[in-house]
Specification:
The chain is α+β, with helices and mostly antiparallel strands. Helices cover about 40% and strands about 25% of the residues. The chain folds into 2 domains: about 1-90, Roll (Mlu1-box Binding Protein, DNA-binding Domain), CATH 3.10.260; about 105-195, Endonuclease, Chain A, CATH 3.40.960.10. It has helices at about 20-30, 35-40, 65-75, 80-90, 105-120, 155-170, 185-195; strands spanning about 1-5, 5, 10-15, 15-20, 50, 60-65, 125-130, 135-140, 145-150, 175-180. It has a 4-stranded antiparallel sheet. The termini are far apart.
């Protein structure tokens, strides 16, 4: 796998293909000093990484799903780089999911407004969450919030219906809002359902 012109080789540990997480972070961020891996690991589910060794010999390894989860939640990696990494994971045969990884400025602004509004009610918001093989924009309680840009025009309707049915089968209700509306209007729609 190549990230920023580096060659990354996955290792097989306990029958799973993994990569040294610290090395991966250095490759995508370009820095190694003052690297707090525990902070970076907050964006990865426990099932997608593991640690081997002790003390100075402690190494953290992350699998392909963990990389996917990490990059989907990262705001420091641009969308082109995210698509590159996703394609490389597909080329390596480590994932076969058709996922759109996108975090636009509009979506970031919306997230900021959403977070500020619901923090008043002490309701945590999870962003870019994996549900099965799908990534959803936001989760509040048992509601999935999908922030649709460009009026959802770039989605395959049949695949989206399958995706929605799966998400609902996992116990979530879906609320769709559009960037065509103001953030205030969208917050009103969400608040009406969630509160």
């Amino acid at each position: 796998m190549k990230i920023k012109n580096f060659d990354v080789s996955f290792q097989s540990i306990n029958g799973e293909k993994v990569i040294d997480f610290k090395y991966f972070i250095i490759l995508i961020s370009g820095f190694s000093c003052n690297l707090d891996l525990s902070k970076e690991l907050r964006n990865v589910s426990n099932k997608n990484f593991f640690k081997i060794g002790k003390g100075k010999n402690l190494k953290t390894y992350i699998n392909a799903d963990g990389i996917l989860e990490f990059i989907s939640k990262s705001f420091r990696i641009d969308n082109i780089e995210k698509e590159n990494i996703l394609q490389q994971l597909k080329d390596e045969g480590l994932i076969n999911k058709n996922i759109i990884l996108s975090t636009s400025r509009k979506e970031l602004c919306f997230y900021s407004n959403l977070f500020d509004f619901f923090s008043i009610f002490n309701l945590p918001i999870k962003k870019q969450v994996c549900i099965g093989s799908y990534i959803v924009d936001f989760i509040i309680k048992d509601f999935v919030i999908e922030y649709d840009e460009n009026n959802h025009s770039n989605y395959n309707k049949e695949k989206e219906k399958i995706r929605e049915n799966y998400i609902k089968s996992q116990g979530y209700k879906i609320i769709r809002v559009s960037d065509i509306n103001s953030n205030s209007y969208n917050l009103g729609i969400i608040a009406k359902e969630v509160l």
